[in-house]
Design brief:
Helix content: 40-55%
Number of domains: 2
Largest sheet: 7 strands, mixed
Distance between the termini: 76 Å
Number of helices: 19
Radius of gyration: 25 Å
CATH class of the largest domain: Alpha Beta
Strand content: 15-25%
Structural class: alpha/beta
CATH architecture of the largest domain: 3-Layer(aba) Sandwich
Bound molecules: nicotinamide-adenine-dinucleotide
Mean pLDDT: 97
CATH topology of the largest domain: Aldehyde Dehydrogenase, Chain A, domain 1
Shape: globular
Length: 477
Amino acid sequence: MGRTLRVRNPRTGEHDYAFEAADATRVDAACAQLRDAQRAWAVRDWTERLDVLVAWAEAIDRHQPALADALSRDTGRWLLAVAETRGVRPTLERWRRYASAVLVDSEGRSQAMPDVRFRHQQVPYPVVGVISPWNFPLLLSLIDALPALIAGCTVAIKPSEVTPRFIEPLQAALDEVPELAGAVALLPGDGETGAALVESVDLVCFTGSVATGRKVGEACARAFIPAFLELGGKDPAIVLPDADPRHAAEVLLRASVLATGQACQSLERLYVPEAMHDTFVEHLVAAARRVTLSHPDIHHGILGPLIFERQAGIIAGQLDEARARGATVHCGGEIERLGGGLWIRPTVLTGVDHDMKIMREETFGPVMPVMAYRDIDEAVALANDSDFGLSAAVIGADVAAAEAVARRIDAGAVSINDGALTGQMFEAEKHSFKLSGLGGSRMGPAGITRFFRRKALLVQHGTPVLIDAFDEGHAAG
Ligand code: NAD
């Protein structure tokens, strides 16, 4: 018997849901079944696998009301929950475009040995383990699973124990597609389940915190399997002197506070020219004050509650430390307990420096510390003074100048004249720099190719070289 885990509702604070965590025996058995099923799954043409996934997307559409309801109870928000349920079909169409380009056997001929021709076989990893976080529970459970399945892998998915309600309706949709049910296992559970999963699979796609990512990476190294780690961020934005301060403030606000800042690519540090600082802060505070909370009605207001109770403590701790060290809070700044949930309004801070946790550690809340810079070199140095390198933003009227600054930032993606674009588009390949992650891009065509190994089949059409050719006397002659 697995352990029973109780789950807190982010809007009421009540533990109103419980589920049984998959233990190591169940994880092991599920992965053994997937390994058996994978041979039949992989021999099918990729277009057939994609058709099966489309059938799943159709089943998900049929279960959409239950799925959206469960996700909204998991996350305390409605619009973003619905958006997660609507993402599967368009995602499959994007992978269809890439798959037709990358899932083809390639051929070539040797330059040194013209009679030797080679062909490539793409060999999928049999069982991929996906471990996902609580901030976008469905999206981040499927983001790597779908391309892995198209590549010919089977997949075991372990969603976060903080937001597990959506698993039941997702499983119900899966049960309606028997051809896929053998290729996908949904394994509810916590860290213990995740750790067991790492021991039973052939490749891991992990999305979550740096601390857990490090443990998962170490376990994968011991098991000698690849780990794709998508971890946290502390994304900077640089506003250039030629930017319009009001427009910059409004764009950066959205990219900082959307989803109550609970997105890895949320902007968490804003750098503005000294001469623009006060005007920018004025506009940012005015825009921040217009952002409403979706309390008490989930269908009215912009920001939902904080999903994870422990995160509220981290945010409060960072704000307390910044205040104690002399930072000024212009708006927001308090965790509010409303209807049993934990909430925070968009928060603007000034008088911050890089000795404060609020400028160094991931906040994962709608908190915007603003710092003035003297010149572009200083702005770039401040942006790069971080353990993280997930993404960043640059705002400026001269796009070429903004791109020149973006090229100097140590991060895997830089949005120019917008912010957090990687949360909205998935075509551009990108890597995570520094502690923000490890492994190949989950975006773009590489999102599929990382799920197989290339085997080279080398065919000699001429006469093989024989051992006599290596006789020292023969060579000298
Ligand atoms: P977390 O690291 O606490 O947990 C993530 C997952 O790992 C959960 O499913 C958890 O049960 C599991 N887990 C815990 N211990 C484990 C272990 N020892 N072995 C295997 N699995 C284990 O992260 P979280 O709090 O759920 O998510 C928030 C974090 O995720 C933030 O840091 C955020 O930036 C990051 N994130 C990154 C991206 C990205 O694409 N880079 C996207 C979303 C979220």
